[in-house]
Amino acid sequence: MMEDPSSKQEITRVLKVLEALKQASHELHTLPSTNVIESDSIKALLELETESDTFLSKDPRLSTLSQQLTKLKSLVDTLQKSCGHGLGSFLTRRFLIQSISRVAGSIESEIQAWIDRESIESLIKGLNEPLQTEEDDLVSLLSQFEGRVSQGFSRELQDLVLKSKIFCLLERVLCNPNCSKKVREQCAFVVSALIRFNKDVFAGQVLMGPLIHGLVSMTSLESMKVLCSLIKSIKSPLVDEIESNGEIPKIISFLDYKDLQWRIVAMDCILEIGYFGRKEAIEAMLTEGLIMKLVELQRSDLCGDLIDTGMSDDEKERSRGENKFSESHPFASCVARFAVQLEVGEGLRQREKRAFKQEILKRVREACVSDAEAATIVAEVLWGSSP
Q1: Which is nearest to 158 in space by CA: 196, 103, 108?
Q2: What backbone phi and psi angles, to 5 degrees, belong to 32?
Q3: How far is Cα 305 from Cα 379, in angstroms, rounded to an integer?
Q4: What is the CB-side half-sphere exposure of residue 218 using CA atoms within 13 A?
Q5: In this structure, what DSSP letter does residue 219 have?
Q6: How far apart are the C-alpha atoms of 196 and 377, rounded to whole Å?
Q7: Long-range Cβ contacts of 88-97 (<8 Å, 24+ apart)
Q8: In tens digits, what is the pLDDT along the chain, a chain of 387 residues?
Q9: Closest listed residue to residue 254, CA positions, set 230, 283, 279, 227
């Protein structure tokens, strides 16, 4: 169902005004005491107090803000009348200035709470009807929410998120192949932001739902980057779910893609799985022929066949001088890098690490096309990890 355009425009206008006033109250909260009365911030807030009957009275949830603005006006009036030069007048002014600062802080909190409520309500409407909502509008709402969550932890915001059950809506849209890829990717970004916001609260929802399958099956570079970030945050429990859901073969298959960026992102994900993965996850990767694929990638990389950006020879020559070796050779020593991840990682016991190291060396010898190649890679594996 389409929202009334006039109502939408009114909410947008109110949001813009309150955002500006939130900034004004923040500045007032931190303003030097000598500039309080003359500041533009105090003028803007007092103008809102004057218009509160027509602006704030329409929303009962803004009643506290209206009361705070009235209190602010009273304090400013009292401060303006306090013009004596004695100790008592000085102490009174100091007290009033501190009170104004506290009230400004409360106003900022009230405005932010209102903005959060309106933003989440608008986002919920869009997520409930993703196919009926304009793609750019929904992406914009998701991006704004991601930015808000990324500002840092807030108990009030967390309560709003939990009460709204917005995580379930994000997961549903992300896993819906009928929704646009752009919207699904932005949902993934929001999920990643929520994990950074409070991993202890939201990690369980990632592990219990279909979100992991949704990220992998989306076959998107951005979704795979999100998966890598989730592995870094949630660690071994997430890798356990990836393995038990049978997603490892799909992830390994991304190494076969022709697109270089796809292979780089897949390699990053595999290295994270290697670091946090337990025995079952590592066995699944080896069973899928990972070492053979890594040897082939390393062989191609050392021959310089992977990097082809369409530049002229002169441009390529300058690029080689400017870029770091790791950037121009993303798969250099990739077998040893994987072995090191297992060696220093958190998922395996010591005896398992030793056993997998021997298994990797065995598979390297089987995958190499010459004794010289095998000797080079074996030496890298042995030197790159502790005995």
Answers
A1: 196
A2: -55, 145
A3: 23
A4: 29
A5: -
A6: 37
A7: 93/33, 94/33, 97/33, 97/36
A8: 445 555 666 666 667 777 777 887 777 777 645 556 667 777 777 776 665 555 566 667 777 887 888 888 888 888 877 766 777 777 888 888 888 888 888 888 888 998 899 899 999 999 999 999 999 999 999 999 999 999 999 999 999 999 999 999 999 999 999 999 999 999 999 999 999 999 999 999 999 999 999 999 999 999 999 999 999 999 999 999 999 999 999 999 999 999 999 999 999 999 999 999 999 999 999 999 999 999 999 988 544 433 344 444 555 555 454 455 667 788 989 999 999 999 999 999 999 999 999 999 999 999 999 999 999 999 999 987 444
A9: 227
CA 236 to chain centre: 19
Retrieve residue 76's tokens.
Answer: 């400013």
Helix 371-384 with 290-302: angle, nearest 10 deg:
110
What pTM did the predictor assign?
0.83
Q: Which spans in 150-255 are helix H?
A: 155-164, 166-174, 181-197, 199-208, 211-217, 221-234, 236-244, 248-253
Per the CB < 8 A criterion, the answer to whether 281 and 247 are in contact is: no
Q: Which amino acid is at 202?
A: F
Is the distance from CB of 292 to CB of 338 less than 8 angstroms? no
* CB atoms inside a 10 Å sphere around CB 320: 12
Q: What is the distance between the alpha carbons of residues 330 and 353, in angstroms, rounded to a whole number?
A: 25
Rg of the chain over CA atoms, in angstroms? 29
Coil vs helix vs strand at 86: coil
Check: CB of residue 337 under 8 Å from CB of residue 271: yes
- Measured CA to CA, the distance from residue 73 to residue 43 in angstroms comes to 10
Structure tokens at 372: 């010289």
**Cα–Cα distance measured from residue 150 to residue 191, given in angstroms and rounded to the nearest whole number:** 11
Distance CA 330, CA 225 (A): 16
